[in-house]
Design goal:
Strand content: under 5%
Mean pLDDT: 90
Number of helices: 5
Oligomer: single chain
Number of strands: 3
Structural class: mainly alpha
Low-confidence stretches: 1-5
Helix content: 55-70%
C-alpha cells in the first residue's frame, strides 16, 4: 500500500491553530481524541500539524457547539460534508443532500431556540439593571 500523500498547503502547529480559532490546545487535542479533527500530519518531532482544511473543520465544530449538537451528530455531519466533496453519483449525492437538509432544519430550529433563550436573558439583564438603578436611587443621598 503506498504512503498517503502529504497535505498540500501550509501546515500549522497546534498553537497557531489555537490562535486562529480561539480554541484551547486541550480542546483541539480532545477533538482529535474523539475523532472529529485529526491532525493532517506530524512533524519529525511528533508535533501535530494542521492544514487550512483542518482549521475550517474546527471552525465548523465551533459553530455546531452552541446549538447543542452531540459529538455523534457533529461526527456524522462532518462525515456528510466530507462525503459530499467526494461523491460523484447522482443518487448517492441526492441521499447525502437529503441528510444535509435534515441537519439544516435542525440547525434552524436550534438557532430559534437559542434566540428565545437570549430574549429571556436580555429581559433579565434589563430588569436587574432597572432594579439596580432603583436601589441606587433610593439609597443615594439626593
Amino acid at each position: 500500500m503506498p504512503d498517503p500523500q502529504p497535505p498540500i498547503g501550509p501546515q500549522l502547529q497546534i498553537g497557531e491553530v489555537a490562535a486562529r480559532t480561539g480554541l484551547s490546545l486541550r480542546t483541539i487535542r480532545w477533538y482529535g481524541e474523539v475523532g472529529l479533527v485529526e491532525p493532517s500530519a506530524r512533524s519529525a518531532g511528533g508535533f501535530r500539524l494542521y492544514t487550512d482544511a483542518d482549521v475550517a473543520r474546527l471552525l465548523l465544530i465551533m459553530q455546531m457547539k452552541p446549538l447543542g449538537f452531540s459529538l455523534e451528530e457533529m461526527g456524522d455531519l462532518l462525515g456528510l460534508v466530507d462525503d459530499l466533496g467526494r461523491v460523484e453519483g447522482a443518487d448517492e449525492r441526492a441521499a447525502l443532500v437529503e441528510r444535509l437538509s435534515t441537519y439544516h432544519r435542525e440547525a434552524v430550529d436550534r438557532v430559534a431556540s437559542v434566540r428565545r433563550q437570549l430574549d429571556i436573558a436580555e429581559r433579565f439583564a434589563t430588569d436587574i439593571g432597572t432594579t439596580l438603578e432603583s436601589a441606587a436611587g433610593t439609597s443615594s443621598p439626593a
